[in-house]
Amino acid sequence: MIPYYPYSNKIFTMPLNNADVRKVARLARLAMSETEIETARSQLSGIFTLIAEMQAVDTKGIAPMSHAQDVSQRLREDTVTETNQRELFQSVAPQVEAGLYLVPKVIE
Amino acid sequence: MLDSSLQQMGSALRSRKISSVELTQLYLDRIAALNPALNAYLTTDAKVSLAQARAADALLAGGNAQPLTGIPFAQKDIFCAKGWRTTCGSKMLENFVAPYDAHVIGQFNRAGAVNLGKTNMDEFAMGSSNETSHFGAVRNPWDKHAVPGGSSGGSACAVAARLCAAATGTDTGGSIRQPAALCGISGLKPTYGVVSRYGMIAFASSLDQAGPMARSAEDLASMLNVMAGFDERDSTSLQREKEDYARALAKPLNGLRIGLPKEFFAEGLSNDVAQTVEAAIAEYKKLGASVVEISLPNSRLAVPVYYVLAPAEASSNLSRFDGVRYGYRAPDYTDLTDMYEKSRAQGFGAEVKRRIMIGTYVLSHGYYDAYYLQAQKIRRLIAQDFAEAYKNCDVIMGPTSPSTAFKLGEKGDDPVQMYLSDIYTIAVNLAGLPGMSIPCGFGAANNGNPGMPVGLQIIGNYFDEARMLNVAHQYQLATDWHSRAPQA
Predict the structure, then answer these.
(1) pLDDT tens profile B4-22
(2) Is pLDDT of A12 > 70?
(3) Which residues of chain B lie closer than 8 angstroms to A85, CB-CB?
(4) Which of B235, B361, B415 has the CB atom closest to A46's CB atom?
(5) Closest partner residue to B370 among A5, A43, A46, by Cβ?
(6) pTM for the structure as a whole
């Protein structure tokens, strides 16, 4: 039990069900069949068992480390540094027309 | 010529004993003969390579050569190279021709080097065996039924099989060091921020780092001199004075203090690897080094922490692949969401989807603190363990991988078993430290299988690459493991 994570034990020991996997797949924009969801649930459960080892560690007062070097983000002048290469970049797109990327209609 | 060091190749080129075109053709012929069985290269383009070689020959003839001018290298297919197909091992990018050069590619071009082609890799660098590549697994040149390691398995294989003079790799959790160990070559992951990530297809941005893979520490130093340096196009590139990574190679090792983490020699390490690594440490003692036992108590948490942080960053980085601006788009769909979901489901392989799912889950509402934030806090504890250890030693040594190369398909159905093959390398990425692997012998032969290469991992303090290369080079002067080559 880690007191400053009142819900952490519950999260770590909660088994994944197919509805959880379906929700995550939707958030991740990955189409999955019911068979794939079942396989994913079983494999993800194994991985989350491995991850659950983190639960017992006391990290009170430890600052999160997001980068290896504690340096601040560099800033630069707000000036144009890139040249327009639209045609080159669009040459690798699946579908373009008149300089525009084509996608299915989103507004009726 | 195939066994010459980069320095020897450079002087042969400068003294016109051989031309870059001849040297490039030699490698192209070898690739044509051997690659069908090894699958190390995904793309070659003889016309482009030979044009670069001719340009290098002109520089050499004019006396304008730099150390790597005219030398043929292989580039991991994670680096965008203008005009080259750049797949990252994925169906998603099967037909993607990069419209620009990664910083690393630009550095090799400016050095007058020749690009022999793009090497195979685990899809989006997610894997430890090269089996997740959409284009089929790479074979280990020492035993074609064994994996080469991953994710930079194609580069490791190409170097070991003499299909290039040397190669580039990238390392997020061990992807340079582990395949280097399994293929019997040398590989270096620099301190995070030393080599620009610009144009290197992102996996986990706070961990990804490019580095050289070669046949010796001396060759690694020559390459790092070209690859390292500040680049404003990578927001995490570090502004530091230019340094010569070969400057300390000749230094004797008297007085060197080697830290041996007791956690790296515990349960889970196979006997033959343990014995081979211990023999290497004994050799270092002969060279004048002393050994101190150290402890990295949180290193056992490196794998769980990594499998929260890396997938979280990956799920964010890979959201760019939506079938709109580049990459694969599904042939049939009903609306925009359906197009996204089908394009991503069909374009990504199973391991990539698995990691996107883990990452999406740990970042989702209500879970962020328990997983992501807790992992970031333990990441700091892991980094602090190293800082504490370096008070008593100069470098840390241990095995690179818990076993020698395993068989293709052996760990196919169990992602967790595969993840544990990076147990000794992952902590180094989390801390952002430099790490390398050098060949130190061969494991046990059994059931008619040959003894496979064993890698010695050398972990340095921040920005201590020159010392690590010195430590590796002195060992390579005293032993010949690094010059052993698999039979073609």
Answers:
(1) 999 999 999 999 999 999 9
(2) no
(3) 99
(4) B415
(5) A5
(6) 0.96
- Cβ separation B360–A28 shorter than 8 A: yes
The strand pair at B166-171 and A96-97 is best described as unpaired
Residues B375-402: tens digit of each pLDDT: 999 999 999 999 999 999 999 999 999 9
DSSP H/E element including A90: helix A86-90
Report the C-alpha gap between B436 and B427 in whole angstroms. 13
B284, B394, B415, B457, B475 from B291: Cα distances, Å: 9, 10, 36, 15, 15
Handedness of CA B180, B181, B182, B184 (dihedral sign): positive
Taking the CA of residue A72 and the nearest CA in chain B, the distance in Å comes to 9
Residues of chain B with CATH 3.90.1300.10: 7-227, 257-304+377-483
Pick the CATH number of B257-304+377-483 from 3.90.1300.10, 3.40.50.2000, 3.90.1150.10, 3.30.160.250: 3.90.1300.10
* B320 reaches A (C-beta below 8 A): no
Alpha helices in B90-245 (DSSP H): 103-110, 153-160, 177-183, 217-227
Record the tokens describing residue B220, joined without a space: 């690694």
Structural domain boundaries of chain A? 1-59
Residues within 8 A of A (CB atoms), B 109-148 only: none
Structurally, at CATH architecture level, domain B7-227 sits in Alpha-Beta Complex (3.90)
For A32, the closest chain B residue by CA position comes to B345
Other C-beta atoms closer than 10 Å to the C-beta of B170 total 25
pLDDT digits (tens, 9 = 90+) for B115-171: 999 999 999 999 999 999 999 999 999 999 999 999 999 999 999 999 999 999 999
* Average pLDDT taken over every residue of chain B: 96
Q: Tell me the catalytic residues of B.
A: 76, 151, 175
